[in-house]
Write the structure tokens for this entry.
Amino acid sequence: MFAVASSLVALGVPATSTSKAMYAWQCDKEPSSLICQHHSLVQQMLAEKDREARKPIQTKIQALVKSRPTGTPSISEQYAAMKLAYCATSPEGAKALCSTAASQFKTAGSASRRSWGLRKPGAPMTPSSSSYSDVATWYCAKPKNEEEPMCKRAAVLKQLRAPGVTAEQRKELLDKLKGAPMVYATTQAIYADYCKIEEHAAKPTCTRLKHTHATRTMREWYCAQPAGQAGMWCKRQALLDRLQKIPSSSTDPGQKEARTKLSKEFAAFSKRPEGGGAPPSAGIAKEITDAKKSYCAIETNKEIVICKASMAGAARAGLARPSALG
């Protein structure tokens, strides 16, 4: 399965295919993991056209989620770990999906009513909900995508947002929403493809993605410099990179021991010394500011999104500050 998915990725296909390769990479190795069982059930539900036949699958999904032992990683946490581990292998053709390897395209809050654009009748759409709606409208305008999971979900959400929906209609639509589960990887991939389009580049959703990618590039540059190698920011990030490469769902004793050790080392950055004083991480904020200043002072970097934002902020601050000559 993974071999087939890898060959698709090599052809430079959209990021949605990359997400399929990622699940194949993970679930060929750990089919019994929570996220892989969940993914398998979600795919079964999406493939099932009969509404009544989908109900027992939905029940299985709910039971699976509830069966997670207390203290073990949630599905979203396992997804994040999977993506970080997959992207750490530098998979061919996964640049779009992995440009924000540590990010999840969440909108609104985590509560079921607010997540992915669902809100009370008559309430205004939040910027994040509007962003999701824009991406879904773009993706679902293509005829071949009408039956895709995101489009089915977006169609139901659109009906739920419409004015005049009765309590009975709302109950029925919410039931439909359960039959149109959100697939994390596919949604992230669609966002990545959306932001490849030049006319979308200036939209808030895409500027956030660009900002995340630019910040990572800046950090990599800084951590290659002598000042960065000696600083706490890069030391902490190097530790985090190692930690994130160990799947949180791993049952391997060696990996679990290594993860526990790295977690303690990472937590130590925020602990105050026994004799008192600031924790090791106290100076990281200033270090990041200094790193950005040095990075953005390079002529070829001045048009990068994080540098333009810094210059704009400095200009505004200068205008707001009383004149020294006044």
In short: The mean pLDDT is 74. The two ends are 71 Å apart (CA to CA). DSSP finds 16 helices and no strands in the chain.
